[in-house]
Amino acid sequence: MIYFYCPECREELEAEDSIKSTKMRCPACWKEIVVPEVGIALPPGRKAARPVGEPAERSVGPRIFLVTVVVVVLGLAGWFGVRHFLAKRQEAARPKCTACAGKGTQTCRDCRGAKMFPCKGECKGTGKVIHQPGNEETNCSDCAGTARTPCRTCGGSGGYGCERCQGTGEPAR
After folding, report:
1. Which residues make Cβ contacts (< 8 Å) with residue 41, sequence separation at least 6?
2. Does pLDDT of 21 surpass 70?
3. Are 141 and 122 in contact (CB under 8 A)?
4. CB 99, CB 164: distance < 8 Å
5. Nearest alpha-carbon partner for 4 in 32, 42, 54, 31
6. Mean per-residue pLDDT for 22-32?
7. Burial of 102 by CB count in 10 Å (0-12 exposed, 13-18 middle, 19+ buried)?
8. What stretch of H or E contains 86?
9. 153 CB contacts (<8 Å, ≥6 apart)?
10. Disulfide-capable partner of 113 in 59, 81, 133, 158 (CB 3.0 to 4.6 Å)?
11. pTM for the full model?
12. What is the sign of the dihedral through the CA atoms of 63, 66, 72 and 77?
């Protein structure tokens, strides 16, 4: 066995005689080093820190930090999950308007949320009107050339506020 120091990090290392003058990586700093031909003499009764090839001991600090972060994240996730569950329970316990199912709005009965219909005026859904004497083409006066007209009940919005609960979602008292 030969004993030597890493020239980069000054880590005390030991290596087999068979790997003298070969390149390797220091297990402490991972820099590429050359194993020397002749090592250093260690005082009697003293051994090298660790043989070459064994990984360096890692400090406990980063592991404790990682475990702490994981515990905090899991604790927060559990707390928010319980809070969300309780909020859902309270929401389910609240009485709801039967007409709008607690939404406060109702879908239009006539268009069922479609909002627009094909024009049934002069253009018959084309958006253009052809006048016979000169074959002159103009926009339809009912749909303004769009070929579609908004629902007359909801005005093209697809729904309206609930009349029974006045948009609150709670049953009328």
Report:
1. 3
2. yes
3. yes
4. yes
5. 42
6. 87
7. middle
8. helix 61-93
9. 108, 109, 110, 111, 160
10. 158
11. 0.32
12. negative
CA distance 10 to 27: 12
The amino acid sitting at 150 is P
CA terminus-to-terminus distance, the chain: 93
Question: CB of 97 within 8 A of CB of 165?
Answer: yes
- Taking only the tens place, the pLDDT of each residue in 63-98 is 888 999 999 999 988 888 888 887 776 666 677 887
**Which residue in this structure is represented by tokens 């909801």?**
154
Count the helices and strands in the chain (H runs, E runs).
1, 11
pLDDT of residue 2: 81
Total count of residues recorded for the chain: 173
Which amino acid belongs to residue 158? G
Task: Write out the two tokens for 64.
Answer: 């404790």
